[in-house]
## 1
Amino acid sequence: MAEGAERRRPGRRPGLTDTRNEIIAAARKVFADKGFDKATIRGIAREAGVDPALVHHYFSTKEGIFVAALSLPADPSKVLPLILQGPREEVGERLVRFLLTLTADPAAREPVLALVRSATTNEQVVAMTREFLARAILDTVVETLGIPPIRMEAAFAQMFGVIMLRYVLRVEPIASVDVEELVELLAPTIQRYLGEP
Amino acid sequence: MAEGAERRRPGRRPGLTDTRNEIIAAARKVFADKGFDKATIRGIAREAGVDPALVHHYFSTKEGIFVAALSLPADPSKVLPLILQGPREEVGERLVRFLLTLTADPAAREPVLALVRSATTNEQVVAMTREFLARAILDTVVETLGIPPIRMEAAFAQMFGVIMLRYVLRVEPIASVDVEELVELLAPTIQRYLGEP
């Protein structure tokens, strides 16, 4: 990362890439210190020594900054509404296939696993992750589908556990089985949680 | 742990508690070095400088040593057969209630979470955990119930994810909801995986 190397002295005008990286470095610090809920675009801009409008320009939303700061493969607050659209009776299947296809790519999966690793060992990261999860994932699904939050959490737990067994513990056969077999096995579970209330 | 302090020079005869602790310290080292599958009671006895019969006397099985070495709250190879007995149509409910009641006690839960924490960050611990999981949990259930292994893994993933959300990430409402509400929500999922093939 060489974050230290990116830090410039106040007064020197950075290039565009420098500025973006500087905002990301500032965001990492602010999210770790304050968590997701209490972090603000204004506070991140202040930490980076730039105008808040510039932060908006690069990242649009606080979710967008968080996704960039942690190199997450997708912004759930943008992707989820697309997956939740379409026939309600197939929402389980769409969600399972999307998550397993996304995490099949190591480059997409690694930042997520890195976040899980640090969340299991660091209380600051736990708090930040919990708040982002609640705002960007759970609330979006709960509001869009009109289901009790606990049902979305059960669905999330199922998929989180599968991804941990498949890619971290790497237990067979779940580590090697193909995506479509897992879709067949798991979609009815997710559908039961997320289907009509 | 003060494992170093427990190590004695060859020749000095230890008390009974010393011997048991010495075997446990040796087992931790052997499991970490060799994993669960390749570790043997004989190898652990050699590492501890005691007779294999003594290891058998204290712990009966390799699973028993592993459980003691990691301070796990129960030996799955002993507990699972009891839970799997009884009406097949209620196996999901029995398993969910057992796991959530067991992990409700922080003293029982902490060693399990400690194992998860080190498994997410340490490849040796991953291998050891994967092998123990496969032998002492997955194989037992698969053989007793006669189901495809992937179904047991899906059930394990569901419960693992729930315990992580409830006790590590502590997302609400799943962190605070009572056990019976979770049994009602989750038992049909586990029943679907573990019920009649």
Note: Chain A touches chain B through 39 residues (CB under 8 Å).
## 2
Amino acid sequence: MQQMDGRKARGDESRRTVLARAIDIASVDGLEGLTIGRLASDVSASKSGVAALFGSKEQLQLATIEAASAVFAEAVIEPARAYPRGLRRVCALVRLWLGYSADRVFEGGCFFLAASVECDSKPGPVRDGLIRALATWDGYLGVSIGYAMEQGELPELTDAEQLAFEINALFNESNTRSLLHGSRVPYEQARTAIAARLLSLGARPAILAEAGLG
Amino acid sequence: MQQMDGRKARGDESRRTVLARAIDIASVDGLEGLTIGRLASDVSASKSGVAALFGSKEQLQLATIEAASAVFAEAVIEPARAYPRGLRRVCALVRLWLGYSADRVFEGGCFFLAASVECDSKPGPVRDGLIRALATWDGYLGVSIGYAMEQGELPELTDAEQLAFEINALFNESNTRSLLHGSRVPYEQARTAIAARLLSLGARPAILAEAGLG
């Protein structure tokens, strides 16, 4: 049993190493850029060893999406849980998302935007995996906005999904523009736009200021 | 001379045929998906014939960006010129952009967003070509917003570039979401958000309604 556990632990460790590299490759070169040969060479492993860990390229792509989701949750969602439900948590999510992109948690910026734009015209299991990952984020952001509405913190807002769409739009534009122009200004533009939008919905300026968005 | 002109005309015609296909391939599979071999096979030409028209893959990618810019100008910028400078032209640009994406003028949605996200982490001549193409669009949208400001049609607006950033963000999000989910709802969300933003800047509701945005 101990030997089996040891082998399993080494397998899990190898999987993590390969997936960490896979996420960075995919954030720069797309999920199509992920090949078992390239990964094996990057992590100094044999092709057959990497193939044994994942099976097909498609399974590798799906495992990479899941691993990226876990990294994203650790960078954005988990730290936001430290803030009380409602507008304070929404503001924390905004600040953390902008930081996640600006700090290049993934080498090529937001993994999910890169993968979405790559796969959006290509139906199949990989696009479905990505849609599931995005739905988890959309759900979390939407529910968080919903709590702020329930608590009367966004008195002019009637549609949480609409606001989530607008915030995601500003996030993604800041990510793409920042990468293209090698500039941090787009994050400032996104922050300015989101703060103005929240204020127009009746958010208290003190809460935004406290979160570093005001 | 006549013979030379005939040869040149045939060369231009072949170039146009190949580039029309190249734009659609790139909008789905990215600029990296453009290979001389694939294009030759798609348009039933010889590889050497296509190679003679473009030279290198990089030159083909740059020519494709220019050709896509011309198609975009014809679909969005030229028809907007029919509207008077100022808020009416800004509203026309919004309606035309959303239509350009929704009607899939390019097979895989907005060519420029797909290419931006693909190239944003990859410095080089292709990214530079794309940055130039985007700067032309940003400039046109920014100047158009500037005319609306000068004419007092957006009395609360102080920064044309900021508004252009926000409008582009909503355009691009609607494009990606619509493709991913096979839905037109994201265009409605973008239209709603842009109309609300223009109204919050003091735009006259009648002008928005007249443009089909209200």
Note: Chain B has ten helices and no strands.
